[in-house]
Write a structure and sequence with these properties.
Strand order of the largest sheet: 3-2-9-1-10
Order of helices and strands: HHEHEEHEEHEEEEHEHHHHHH
Number of helices: 12
Largest sheet: 5 strands, antiparallel
Structural class: alpha+beta
Strand content: 15-25%
Helix content: 55-70%
Shape: elongated
Radius of gyration: 32 Å
Length: 387
C-alpha cells in the first residue's frame, strides 16, 4: 500500500473550496499591502519636505536676545542697527563654512502640500532676479512651462505643487491670505519647490536663507558662533531639525495608525479563517476515516493536508503580488501622480508583516487540523461501537 497521498488530487476535485481559501488569503494580502501603499503617500511626501529639501536649502531666523542683545533695555531705534550688524556678521560667518554656496537675507512665502491625510507648508524664498538661475541649478530644477520671474511679485512653482493645489496654475495667482503673486512658470524638480522676486509693496517675513551641500546641523554651526537656538524664540529649518520632527511626529503617528489597521485586518482574518477552516475540516472527517481504514497513517494524512495548505498560501501570495502590482500602477496613474504626491512602491516592512501574519495563520490552522485528525476513527472501530 503506497503511503503517500496526493494533495493536488483533492485540490483539483474541490476547486470551489480551495478557491474560497485562496481568495480570502489573497484579499487580506492585497488589503494589507495597499493600505501601506496609500499611507506611504503621506510618509514619502513628508519625507521630501522634511529630509530632501532641508539638505538643499536652510532657513534661520533668530531673536535679538539670541544674538546677545539687551532687547529689554534698548529702544527699537537703538536695537535695529545692532540687530542688523549681528545678522550680517552671522551671514559672513556662514559664508565661510565649507559646503555653503550662497547666503541670502530673503523674504519668504509659504506654499502648501496636502497628502491624503494632513498637510504641510514649505518655504518659498524670494530673491533677486539674477540669483534665480543659481537657486534653480542648486535644486536641479528645469523650466518646463512658462518663463522665469522677471518682475517683482512673480514666482515659479514645481509641477507637483501645482498638481496638488487646484488654486495654482500657470499664469494664475498665488494667494496666501495677505499676498498676491503671479505664477509665471512651472519647473520640474525632485522636491516641492518655488522661488520668486519679492514685491516691494508686500513686505514679508525675512529669514537668512542658505544654499548648501553636505551640512546637516546648522545648530552646531550657530553654537560655534556663540548662539544657542531656543525653541520658542528662534526658527531653524535644517536637516537635523526636520529629520527629528519627521521621525517623531510623522512616522510615529503613521506607525501607530498602520499598526492598528494591520492588527485589525489580521484579527478579523484569523477569526474568519479559523471558523471557515474548522467547518471545512469537519466535512472531510469521513474521507480521513476511510484513508485510515485502508491503511494510511495519520501522519501521512497530516502531511497531505500541509501540502494542501502550502499550495493555498503560496498561490494566494503569488496571485496577490500580481493584483498589487496592477493596483499600484493604476492608483499611481489615476490618483497619486495627478495629485502631485510621492509614494513608495515596495515596502520591505509591509512584506515582512504580511509574511509574518501568514506564518501565524499557518500555525493557527494547525490546531483544528491536529484536533480533527486526533478524532478520526477507522471503519472497524466504528463497527465495534455499533455491536
Amino acid at each position: 500500500m503506497p503511503q503517500k497521498l496526493s494533495a493536488m488530487r483533492y485540490i483539483k476535485n474541490n476547486k470551489r473550496r480551495t478557491s474560497v481559501l485562496i481568495v480570502s488569503l489573497c484579499l487580506s494580502f492585497v488589503l494589507t499591502y495597499l493600505t501601506q501603499f496609500l499611507l506611504s503617500t503621506n510618509s514619502e511626501t513628508f519625507r521630501t519636505l522634511f529630509e530632501y529639501s532641508p539638505k538643499k536649502i536652510q532657513f534661520v531666523s533668530l531673536a535679538g536676545s539670541s544674538y546677545g542683545l539687551d532687547v529689554d533695555n534698548l529702544s527699537t531705534e537703538e536695537l535695529m542697527p545692532l540687530y542688523q550688524a549681528k545678522r550680517l556678521e552671522l551671514m559672513e560667518h556662514l559664508r565661510e563654512q565649507e559646503g555653503v554656496k550662497k547666503v541670502y537675507y530673503a523674504e519668504v512665502l509659504y506654499g502648501f502640500v496636502q497628502p491624503l491625510v494632513g498637510g504641510l507648508n514649505f518655504e518659498i524664498p524670494l530673491i533677486a532676479k539674477e540669483e534665480l538661475p543659481v537657486l534653480l541649478d542648486h535644486f536641479g530644477a528645469t523650466l518646463v512651462e512658462g518663463r522665469l520671474p522677471e518682475q517683482p511679485g512673480e514666482l515659479v512653482l514645481d509641477r507637483d505643487t501645482v498638481r496638488n493645489n487646484d488654486q495654482y496654475s500657470l499664469n494664475g495667482s498665488f494667494y496666501t491670505g495677505t499676498d498676491l503673486f503671479q505664477i509665471v512658470g512651472i519647473v520640474d524638480c525632485d522636491s516641492y519647490f518655488g522661488c520668486g522676486i519679492p514685491h516691494p509693496e508686500l513686505p514679508r517675513t525675512t529669514m537668512i536663507t542658505i544654499l548648501s551641500e553636505g551640512i546637516d546641523d546648522f545648530g552646531a554651526i550657530l553654537a560655534e558662533y556663540g548662539i544657542t537656538v531656543r525653541e520658542n524664540f528662534d526658527t531653524i529649518v535644517d536637516y537635523q531639525t526636520c529629520h527629528q520632527i519627521y521621525e517623531t511626529e510623522v512616522l510615529g503617528s503613521l506607525r501607530d495608525s498602520t499598526t492598528f489597521i494591520y492588527l485589525g485586518i489580521i484579527l478579523l482574518l484569523s477569526i474568519s479563517l479559523f471558523i471557515v477552516y474548522t467547518t471545512y475540516l469537519r466535512d472531510r472527517r469521513d474521507e480521513w476515516c476511510l484513508y485510515c481504514s485502508i491503511g494510511y497513517s495519520r501522519q501521512t494524512i497530516y502531511f497531505s493536508i500541509l501540502r494542501e495548505l502550502l499550495f493555498t498560501f503560496v498561490t494566494a501570495l503569488l496571485l496577490g503580488t500580481v493584483i498589487i502590482g496592477i493596483s499600484e500602477f493604476l492608483l499611481y496613474l489615476l490618483m497619486i501622480a495627478p495629485a502631485g504626491l510621492k509614494c513608495r512602491f515596495f515596502s520591505p516592512q509591509a512584506v515582512f508583516e504580511i509574511l509574518s501574519s501568514y506564518v501565524l495563520l499557518f500555525g493557527l490552522l494547525q490546531l483544528p487540523v491536529r484536533t480533527a485528525l486526533w478524532k478520526i476513527r477507522t471503519i472497524d472501530a466504528i463497527e465495534d461501537d455499533l455491536y
